[in-house]
Amino acid sequence: MAxxxxxxxxxxxxxxxxxxxxxxxxxxxxxxxxxxxxxxIMTRQGYGEGMRRRRVARYKEYDRLRNAELSxxxxxxxxxxxxxxxxxxSDRDYLFLLKNVICLEAGINLYxxxxxxxxxxxxxxxxxxxxxxxxxxxxxxxxxxxxxALCDNGNGDVLLSSSLLLDEFSSILAHTGRREVV
Length: 182
Hints:
Layout: E1 5-11, E2 14-20, H1 28-47, H2 49-67, E3 72-77, H3 78-81, E4 93-98, E5 101-104, E6 118-123, E7 132-137, H4 144-147, E8 150-152, E9 158-160, H5 162-176
Parallel strand pairs: 5-6
Antiparallel strand pairs: 1-2, 3-4, 6-7, 8-9
């Protein structure tokens, strides 16, 4: 059973009780040696800094090769992007950037944006951390998944609905039998 209790620390104003734990009995050298041993074990298991850097570089290279073939830009995110997990370990988080779609904050001049880009404006007058995407300009080259996720907000504005967009992704996944879009 672990021992504990309270000891006293002398200060300028008197004696102050402090908790005693098993760790307070060990020297700083012991704690450092345990830390070094844990670091060594983690490195041998593939979680060292060098291995993480190599994984990050490999995921970036993988994204670069995939993006050459796609109509959108794919960016690995999450634990994979940080090099914390191997290729087939854990899930994969991606950020998809459509090459002909842009989202603007309020105050950005719409006319400074090239005409071949579909433009959405962020309306942040909603819950903190959320926004509405209002369609400002649609192009003839609109992705079907985006087009099918557009809806009317009742005031004549066209919104990009996150729930409709997720439904479109789910539909694609169900038809292809894949767990991932890419």
